[in-house]
Amino acid sequence: xxxxxxxxxxxARVEAELELRTPxxxxxxLDRITDLLGLLGDPQRAxxxxxxxxxxxxxxxxxxxxxxxxxxxxRTGRYTSPHLQSVTERIAINGDPIDPEGFAxxxxxxxxxxxxxxxxxxxxxxxxxxxxxxxxxxxADAPVDVGVIEVGLGGRWDATxxxxxxxxxxxPIGLDHVGILGDTIAAIAGEKAGIxxxxxxCVVGIQPPxxxxxxSARADEVGARLVVAGADVGLRDRVLAxxxxxxxxxxxxxxxxxIFLPLHGVHQAGNALSALVAVEAFFGAGTDDRGPLDxxxxxxxxxxxxxxxxxxxVRRGPTVLIDGAHNPAGAAAxxxxxxxxxxFTRCVAVLAVLDDKDAAGIIAAIDPVVDAVVCTxxxxxxxxxxxxxxxxxxxxxxxxxxxxxxxxxxxIDAAVExxxxxxxxxxxxxxxxxxxIVTVGEARxxxxxx
Length: 450
Description:
Elements: H1 9-19, H2 31-39, E1 49-53, H3 58-71, E2 76-79, E3 91-93, E4 96-97, H4 100-120, H5 127-141, E5 146-150, E6 167-170, H6 178-181, H7 185-192, E7 201-204, H8 209-222, E8 225-228, E9 234-241, E10 244-250, E11 255-261, H9 266-283, H10 295-303, E12 312-315, E13 319-322, H11 328-341, E14 346-351, H12 359-366, E15 372-375, H13 386-397, E16 402-404, H14 408-420, E17 429-434, H15 437-449
Parallel strand pairs: 1-5, 1-6, 2-5, 6-7, 7-8, 13-17, 14-15, 14-17, 15-16
Antiparallel strand pairs: 2-3, 3-4, 9-10, 10-11, 12-13
């Protein structure tokens, strides 16, 4: 876990001040961020952007888009959330997180103006709004050629939605944040469709039919172009490979074969397709008789893609993976990847979730691929207590498959021991730490320190 003592003093200071701005609260309007960015000179207008929303896969897709753009010599600014280990990860310039001094400097530039905005509105500028303004400002100051911007929550009222990007991506939509975005796929899709603006090209990953209906209606309403996976573009072939998968993709400009993606899971193949097509759309491939992008650049860039905390192997003997699945759809994708790509004779999950998440749905999704679950907690004030989570797990898995360890480090140790018990040697055992990005970030810090 990242603690104030382990952070550079400059970052710890800024993070402490940001935390005072109610980091988990969403105020559904764009008044404060519009005011703040106006005082800053609208830095988000200094460069074009590619905007991403969806329920699962946003950060992985954003990282792929970033890597592809840089492969073509484009200087990028990437804004993602939440972070795994340090808040500075959220603002990346040309592939690297902003340095601590730069992070503090941009905060000191934006914070006085946020105080002015506070005085003008009933609600203060939120944690996410201030951080978004910092990201946009840092990118303008760098400067970058293009922003790769992930929404924080939803789309229509998200602080990032002032960019009105010419290219946007909607990754698969599922049920999450139902108390804020709505309790149906259609309602959630309606919120996420808010990032589709007039004249934009919107790349749509595989969606439930009710989500696609809403997205199509929004595109028609504003005069945007919709490019739909499985209809307009597609995954032509996928073969498992050592350390990842080999893909053939059909894009806007043509076919792209023999692409090695060093990430696991068919869902990452879908994310790769969306990333490729978004970059094609940004460069105009498939229009005005333009053919495919340079295949060698595409291959080289995809081979360099990383997505920390997404089915990431952090230890061998036994294998320990971390994955940020925090809703049933994400857990189902995790379970499918474990079943298809990891030949474990015994697998144990370490699970810690936030209190507002569908813990039962997550547990039911991983039930077929795990032999036991160790329930624990993380440092978030919204974390579900380990014993409460264990109660949910026992109703689904039975008491004999569930253990409780309040501390995350103890839970990981207990899971390793359980995995090795009954497995055919350590090579046949596996542990997966999941349930929350907070959980995964803290596990990553612990395991890397070891």
